[in-house]
Design goal:
Helices cover about 45% and strands about 15% of the residues. It is an alpha/beta fold and about 525 residues long. The strands form 2 sheets. Strands 5-4-3-2-1-12 form a 6-stranded mixed beta sheet. A hairpin with a 5-residue loop joins strand 9 (about 425-430) and strand 10.
Amino acid sequence: MRPLLALVSGGLLCLAFPTFDIWVAAPVALALLALALTGARARSGFGLGLLAGLAFFVPTLQWSGIYVGDLPWLALATLQALFFALAGLGYAWLARAGRVRPVVFALVWVAAEGLRARAPYGGFPWLKLAFGQADAPFGRLVALGGPPFVAFVIALSAGLLALAASSVVARRGGMPLTRVAVATVLAVGLGAAGLLVPLPTAGPTAQFLGVQGNVPRPGLDFNAERRMVLDNHVRATYQALQDVAAGRAPHPDLIVWPENASDIDPLRNADAKAEILATVEVAQAPLIVGGLLEEPPGHVSNVSLLFEPGKGNTDRYVKRHPVPFAEYIPDRAFFRLFSKEVDLVRLDFVAGEKVGLFTVDPKDAPQIRAGLAICFEVAYDDIMLDTVRAGANVLVVQTNNATFGFSAESPQQLAISRIRAMEFGRSVVHVSTVGQSALITPDGTAHQVTSLFTQAVVRGALPLRTTTTVATRVGQVPEWVAAGVLLLLVVGSFVRGRYRTDQTVGASATTGRTGAKDEDDDDES
């Protein structure tokens, strides 16, 4: 029964994320997992967590193997499932008395997500629980404590539902339903609490133009035709500017092209640079370009470049968190022992050190301070927090989804940007080479969502907000507090276990000595 509950739990959790978007599936799925783990042995908890993790990650990360084969996909899914297994082991050990412990379950879940977001090689926080809650009351809680707080509340609600269910099962001898009622009301109350969190959108506005130029073909060779991706973005921008010239659209204060919009180094290829500079002069607006630079020697840099009219390239941001096994190969010699495919990544991407923030001063709009994230960086709490704390009044997420085909990866990433908008109270310009692209207001609403593998633009006014949310002020404190409390619980449980063992051994020894004396007395008699 427990393995079945674990498998159903993982499968049900899939429904909370795009493209299903049934957010209520998350607390129900976790409630089933809590029931499966409660009372299980620690070793069994590891196995049950692994089953749930595989049932969840294998289908939801299917996009990772579309063009590179099943092995990377299944390896990634299994690695991520191991963190569910660790959570299962930890909770089963702490709840081995057979009682559902909702707070403990929530703490374990937050700790496991935090560990998954950091290890190995910087972690992979994709599919955090909060990232499936953009349309849910739970999601609004992100403004109070970031994704870890959302995860805690959802897992706590799930634990309470599991407690209510276990109490119903135990009520065979006429046990009163007080515990069931209280647990159920608390779970529902936590689910609705997010409706009380305000998500203001008012503020001075600026006009943004995001360009989705499309690529010649999906897949790993999306940029096989020299300059074709760049030319697509130039052409789409010119078409959008025709609407401006004709008075059908407002003049943009900032234009954003996506990651890899320039498929050749725009600073070392004169023709590419000339195309970009000409576009900027025609637009008479600053332009953020995603590209790859052939530097430093022997490496590559994934960058955002700022071009301004009459000034050329005025600023750059180098991606701070290159993706392991995709943009660089860690421990290359070791992993080559398992597969020579690692050498498909011929040059490793370097990691930038500077927080991404571009500042531009439009003529007829307030100063724009754009906080930058390239592709998967949007999923990393610290990177996004750094940009806002550096002074960003709008967030710009540039991504290239051409290598993931018509899959759930793009909707999953857009959902993360929506959560970030709510978390920090910032508008987001989310632009992809192939879609989905959108303009997102600070309440998490995505506007003008584009279709995959089409040429399109997203344009309009977005508020520039400077007010900091509670989540921005507390940063990662909620996650570390949860980890600290959980550590204290683990230590306390270990100490109590040792104390009981010592007491049992002492009692057995005393009983043995007493028994021996009695036997001597009997012999004497």
